[in-house]
Structures are given as structure tokens and as C-alpha cells.
Design goal:
This is Regulator of cell morphogenesis and NO signaling. The longest helix has 23 residues. The protein has 4 helices and no strands. It has one domain. The two termini are about 15 Å apart.
């Protein structure tokens, strides 16, 4: 599988991430308060991507914060597939951005 560009990853994942980041706050927020930070950071990423239009947005701060609060996207052992999928997609977006 070839590496996807940042724009391809955004196209493929952002709509689902919008749903998933909301869902994980509801399902896991009590046991995983970091889910709320993940949602907030995703909203910041989305806004910056939208505002940048065709240009590459500066997302270094947001991705650094995401890596910190998710322990480099380590999936907790007590979460559902949606939570796991959220971290996997965020990790892909981060890698594509860094490439």
C-alpha cells in the first residue's frame, strides 16, 4: 500500500474522525478524560485545515499535543473499536502531515 498524501488522508478520514471523536467522548469520557482533549484538538485541526484552503496548514503544535495526550496513539486496553479506529486514523493523519 502506497503512502497517502496529507490531503488524501484528510479526505479519507476527517468526516469519520468528526463522528468518532464525538462518539468516544460519550462512550469513554468518564474513564478516559483525554478523549475530550482529543476531540478538542481534532476540532482545531479541522478548522486550520479548512482555513488553509489549498495551502498546507501549520499543525505542528496540535499533533505534538495529540501525541503527548495519547501516548503516541497507544490504544487503551479497555476501549471499543471506534476508539481504536480514532487513534489509528489520527496516527495516519499525523504521519502523512510529517511526511
Amino acid at each position: 500500500m502506497s503512502e497517502q498524501t496529507f490531503n488524501e488522508v484528510i479526505t479519507n478520514h476527517f468526516e469519520k474522525l468528526d463522528l468518532y471523536t464525538t462518539a468516544i467522548t460519550r462512550a469513554h469520557g468518564k474513564n478516559h478524560p483525554e478523549a475530550f482533549e482529543v476531540r478538542e484538538l481534532f476540532e482545531k485541526l479541522s478548522k486550520k485545515v479548512k482555513d488553509a484552503g489549498a495551502n498546507k496548514p501549520d499543525l505542528d503544535v496540535e499533533f505534538a499535543q495529540l501525541r503527548k495526550i495519547t501516548d503516541n496513539y497507544a490504544i487503551p486496553g479497555d476501549v471499543c473499536e471506534t476508539y481504536a479506529g480514532t487513534y489509528e486514523m489520527l496516527s495516519e493523519v499525523d504521519k502523512a502531515y510529517q511526511a
